[in-house]
């Protein structure tokens, strides 16, 4: 963690909506936001050189206030690429949470085994990789496989960001992974005219038949063609929940880096009963599944 004083960089992406609406839907006790981020503050947690975007600061205090407004009890903080391989913004938040937070780290092969063990002790439960081809962001697959073997004894999972059209090409690799793999944002499916039905069908089949595959039913604002309140996303979420009701997760994705249209997080809670009206499935999605995957105490 750095405490060096430095000038605030100019943000290149939208800021989160500061006026979170109180949702009409009441989240059950123990609800976990399974995909969210903390950004900065830059003066304490500097953004990485060479980053692809510069966010507005979205610090721990704002993070806590958001969850208080929404009724979220637990969170899994995913370290964002703007912080590079410095995971201290996540581990410091976990340390202050009294057991309410866990995290997903950004790592590479430079991390020693002891450093990975230390991250586990600090509440890290997985590491994230981006496989979005149009961004030129696919990792070296040999290095990826070596990292997978190193995290396996730690009980970690890999958190993966795809776009739906690329998923079929990676299905054989995913099925062979020896650790749980969690796919972000409904696999990057696109609602509306650009929807690739064959790719989404492959994604549903993978989730249905691969017991190591988990799905984050997150990011409706990223995949919606219609905009708020994102009801065109509901059929995709329902299909994924039906495919593996015990391996789906919900989250806000706050503060929504790189979105074109900033959502109000109240809408992201109120869409849940449109995904499923079954209280047992809501309990699984919001509470039980994340407790099991991330091993909350």
From TrEMBL:
GO terms for molecular function: hydrolase activity. Residues 1-20 are annotated as: Disordered. It holds the Pfam family Amidohydro_2. It comes from the Bacteria. Residues 1-10 have a biased composition (Polar residues). Residues 32-296 form the Amidohydrolase-related domain. InterPro entries: Amidohydro-rel (IPR006680), Aro_Compnd_Degr_Hydrolases (IPR052358), Metal_Hydrolase (IPR032466). Keywords: Hydrolase. This is 2-pyrone-4,6-dicarboxylate hydrolase.
